[in-house]
Specification:
The protein is of the alpha/beta class and 373 residues long. The protein is built from 14 helices and 15 strands. The chain has helices at 3-12, 70-83, 99-102, 105-112, 120-130, 137-146, 151-158, 164-167, 239-245, 248-251, 270-293, 302-309, 316-335, 364-370; strands at residues 29-32, 35-41, 48-56, 59-63, 89-93, 116-118, 176-177, 183-186, 189-196, 203-208, 213-217, 258-261, 267-268, 339-343, 349-353. β4 (59-63), α2 and β5 form a beta-alpha-beta unit. α6 packs across α7, α11 (270-293) packs across α13 (316-335) and α12 (302-309) packs across α13. The protein is globular. The structure holds zinc ion. Zinc ion binds next to loops.
């Protein structure tokens, strides 16, 4: 068995998966009192998303919507016809702006005359990307050129973005804002909103102390590591630092909480999984720094570092994600004072290793003190 598969299986074996098999699309499965798990298809290598239905005495809340696909709408209609016990959907909540989480929000809200609940950052980002206000071809091309992508490849790659409005239908023109630390009442229980950054602008996870349940969204996944990328509309984002420092908000939760993620299986072992993810990113940062040292005083571009993190063959769509994730690691090294950025006359960014004697330790303690949940 290849090393990386054996490693992945060893990590999975450290978690518990108490909810058994996934329900088939169009069916639901209760995983905690009043909380039902359902799955919808996705047309990618990652072929499913988990959604959750929260039951109240007089109605239901939908957490995440699935992508805008006819197949998904048909599964929803089947669920509405067979599983709602005659009660209406009262609210739709999207954890974040990605198409699989918000794609059918407009359709569901109109279908049930229900309000949409989201963070401000993700609602506004979804609206502006969907309506072509940000992340246009020009800014995408500039982003790739700064990262050292050869000119002949720039057009190929940047045209592979832009499917957002295919997967996301028109969103409601108004929404209800939820913020970090808010306490919201869903399914007859109180839930605390935990905002995470790095994967999406203001990703919402939901924690219920009464039930010992965390709806983690994409922020904590059991098997795959969450995509943490730097995108053309925010090219200097320090996404990986934001993602990792946000873990402090989850470490405060009980180690035996049931975690309901957006992909994979519900699991127990939150702290173990956070440790695994930190180890994963730290190992990649170390590999990248070692590779940059090899480039000497000239330093390396983001494009040169992509194969360091992603040794396998990538298709054009995957390359765009890999580029963003590589840049997130470079920005994290820069924030830690381990590399510095230089810019060529053509505007290409190179990252040069800083001699160890010049480096400063990251200010992790400061982040902990500032973070009030
Ligand atoms: Zn996502």
């Amino acid at each position: 068995m290849p090393d990386h598969i054996e490693h992945a299986q060893r990590l999975l074996a450290q978690l518990r998966f108490p909810c058994g098999d996934a329900p088939p699309s169009g069916e639901i499965k209760q995983v905690a009192p009043g909380i039902h798990w359902l799955r919808m298809p996705l047309p990618f290598q990652l072929n499913h998303i988990n959604l959750y239905l929260l039951e109240e005495a007089d109605g239901w809340t939908i957490v995440d919507t699935g992508m805008q696909l006819d197949e998904t709408k048909a599964h929803w209609e089947h669920i509405f016809a067979t599983h709602l016990k005659g009660k209406p959907v009262k609210a739709v909540l999207s954890t974040h702006m990605h198409p699989d989480h918000v794609g059918l929000a407009g359709w569901l809200c109109a279908r049930w005359k229900a309000p949409l609940h989201m963070s401000l950052g993700d609602y506004m980002s979804a609206q502006s990307i969907r309506n072509g206000l940000v992340d246009d071809n020009e800014s995408r091309a500039a982003h790739l050129r700064r990262g050292g992508v050869p000119e002949e490849k720039v057009a190929t790659f940047h045209l592979h973005r832009g499917g957002y409005s295919k997967g996301v239908g028109p969103l409601p023109a108004a929404f209800n804002r939820i913020m970090h630390g808010d306490r919201v009442s869903l399914g007859g229980h109180r839930w605390q909103v935990i905002v995470g950054r790095g994967h999406a602008p203001e990703h919402v996870s939901l924690w219920c102390a009464d039930l010992n349940v965390l709806i983690s969204g994409d922020q904590v996944l059991p098997k795959i590591s969450t995509n943490v990328g730097v995108w053309p509309n925010e090219p200097m984002a320090d996404a990986l630092t934001w993602f990792l420092t946000g873990f402090v908000r989850f470490r405060r939760l009980p180690a035996d909480a049931l975690v309901l993620p957006s992909h994979g299986f519900p699991f127990v072992g939150l702290h173990t999984r956070l440790d695994q993810l930190v180890a994963h990113h730290e190992a990649r940062l170390a590999e990248m720094l070692a590779a940059i040292v090899g480039y000497g005083d000239k330093g390396a571009t983001c494009w040169q570092m992509v194969p360091v993190l992603f040794a396998r063959h990538l298709d054009n769509n995957q390359v765009v994600f890999a580029f963003g994730e590589t840049l997130a690691h470079l920005h994290c090294l820069e924030t830690r004072g381990l590399v510095r950025r230089t810019t060529t006359a053509e505007g290409v960014h190179h990252f040069v290793a800083v001699p160890l004697t010049d480096t400063v330790a990251p200010a992790e303690d400061a982040v902990e003190v500032m973070d009030v949940a």
